[in-house]
Amino acid sequence: MNNPLINPGIGTFFWMLVSFGVLVFILGKWGWPMLLKALTKREKDIEDKLNAAEKAHEEMKQLTAHNEELIRQAKQERDEIIYAAKLRAEKGAEEILAKASSEANAILAKARQDIENEKKRAIVDLRNEIANLSIDIAERLIESELSDRNKADAIIKKELQDAHLN
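Predicted structure:
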């Protein structure tokens, strides 16, 4: 059981100890600082990326809130535009109705005036016709014998029956 790996001799132990010490010295001088530096850099990169992700998350929240505000404003503007359009349409309809009513009243007034004018003209025509008829009757009476009263009355009755007033 004299295996040098299991029971090393004092010389082997010494050189192993020296080799281990040199290794620890080299790793301590150059290896560990580089390893710690790399770990520190990696930790800082991870922290920066987490901070950037958190910042991006906050920006997304702000953008979402801003977008929701823009959507709310757009809906409000749409509602205002629709309301204004309805008001304009109602006002236009009222104006059209008022204009149509005034035009109808003007047409009605003109028709009444025309009827009144036709009525007056018909009365004037009727008076002229009566005057002409009276003149004709008077002429015939004068031409006939004015002394014969019965004959004159018969002529007047006959002329009145012949001239039907339409």
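Summary: The chain has a mean pLDDT of 87.
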